[in-house]
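Retro notes (design track)

What went well: tokenization of the new backbones is finally stable.
What didn't: we kept losing track of which sequence belonged to which structure.
Fix going forward: every design gets posted as structure first, then sequence, in one message. First example under the new rule, 400 residues:
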């Protein structure tokens, strides 16, 4: 690493000295399971840590026992406001037989910490907490305001987390960083996530006399064939940071027993929407497919409804928070970061769309391996990312 003259040498040396403490923090967080809906225990841990740093901590709940944490450090001096965010909840570990390291043991092997949430996104949470600790313990004079927001419910859309906080007016800042897994890239855009449910309806009858009924599953097979053609066409729609638009079939449910012609089939679709598209247009394309099938297949009946809309966002690469984050990365790492986009949804979208705050994403976790069995993060990256996060705080808020 190249700590050039623009970097804060005492701050980065402080983080080197905190190496074991940083690793222990991540292990402690991983050993505190926080599957969506069960965030109270980890929220208590994080809130107590923030209080120990002398931050002004507030717990905000949209629903009992679903805490969001807002922690402020107000310098009392005029200056910009910086918001750092990560979410508290994680997905379940899945089948335990797929794990070679227990998902909540936070074991260390080959220079990595293993466990559910190490990537998504307790390594990011660690970088925010420990970078803030380093800044405050070094005693660096600050201006403006640093706000840490740790939200619940992110893995299922953030209705009780960041969406709620934004809509209730709790989120204010000039700029923000969300510590979602970015594989040490600086990410400045996300696709929108549109989940659609399609239902075909037929007429049930005995399986021995299928001609007396109408098979909803067979109709859904026609829908699926049409969706596959649409998915192939979507590959031609691309974005420089986000790649191509996509459509994926993620769930199907139909029928009652094998010897009965099914009168209902339900399909779940994940449609990733580029900034050049709208959810309304994406839905219209699917509806046109259903209308075409209705015109061609006697007795065909289908309906669709929107289940989730999670908007995407994009920032200009010259936005001040992008430049600040990239410069901070370069000061610590000795090279410019890769600037990219994220195909998955994050709380960054709600911060940008609902509160109008320019926001980037940065974290050490490998985004392509989030939610995998044997999820893990390199300790070397964890320490480096903590330095970058501290440098971001320094460059945004240090008193000159």
């Amino acid at each position: 690493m190249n700590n050039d003259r623009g970097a804060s040498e005492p701050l980065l040396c402080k983080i080197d000295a905190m190496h074991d403490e940083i690793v222990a923090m991540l292990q402690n967080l991983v050993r505190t399971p926080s599957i969506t809906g069960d965030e109270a225990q980890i929220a208590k841990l994080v809130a107590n840590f923030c209080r120990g740093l002398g931050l002004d901590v507030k717990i905000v709940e949209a629903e009992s026992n679903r805490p969001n944490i807002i922690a402020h450090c107000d310098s009392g001096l005029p200056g910009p406001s910086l918001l750092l965010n990560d979410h508290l909840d994680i997905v379940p570990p899945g089948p335990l037989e797929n794990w070679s390291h227990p998902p909540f043991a936070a074991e260390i092997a080959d220079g990595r910490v293993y466990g559910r949430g190490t990537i998504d996104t307790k390594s990011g949470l660690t970088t925010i907490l420990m970078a803030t600790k380093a800044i405050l313990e070094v005693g660096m004079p600050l201006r403006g305001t640093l706000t840490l927001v740790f939200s619940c419910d992110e893995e299922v859309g953030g209705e009780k987390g960041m969406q709620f906080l934004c809509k209730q007016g709790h989120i204010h800042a000039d700029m923000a960083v969300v510590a979602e897994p970015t594989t040490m890239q600086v990410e400045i855009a996300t696709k929108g996530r549109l989940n659609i449910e399609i239902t075909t309806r037929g007429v049930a009858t005995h399986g021995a006399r299928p001609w007396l009924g109408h098979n909803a599953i067979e109709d859904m097979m026609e829908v699926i064939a049409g969706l596959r053609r649409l998915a192939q066409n979507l590959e031609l729609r691309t974005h420089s940071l986000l790649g191509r638009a996509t459509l994926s079939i993620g769930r199907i449910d139909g029928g009652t027993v094998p010897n009965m012609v099914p009168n209902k089939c339900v399909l779940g679709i994940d449609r990733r929407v580029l900034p050049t598209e709208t959810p309304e247009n994406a839905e219209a394309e699917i509806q046109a497919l259903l209308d075409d099938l209705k015109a061609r297949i006697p007795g065909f009946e289908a309906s669709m409804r929107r289940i989730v809309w999670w908007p995407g966002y994009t920032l200009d690469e010259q936005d001040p928070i992008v430049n600040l984050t990239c410069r901070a990365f370069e000061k610590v790492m000795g090279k410019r970061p890769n600037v990219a986009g994220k195909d998955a949804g994050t709380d960054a979208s709600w911060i940008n769309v609902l509160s109008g705050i320019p926001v980037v994403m940065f974290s050490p976790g490998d985004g392509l391996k989030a939610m995998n069995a044997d999820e893990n993060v390199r300790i070397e990256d964890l320490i480096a990312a903590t330095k970058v996060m501290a440098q971001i705080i320094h460059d945004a808020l240090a008193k000159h």
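Added context from the reviewer: The domain at 9-190+313-397 is CATH 3.40.630.10 (Aminopeptidase).
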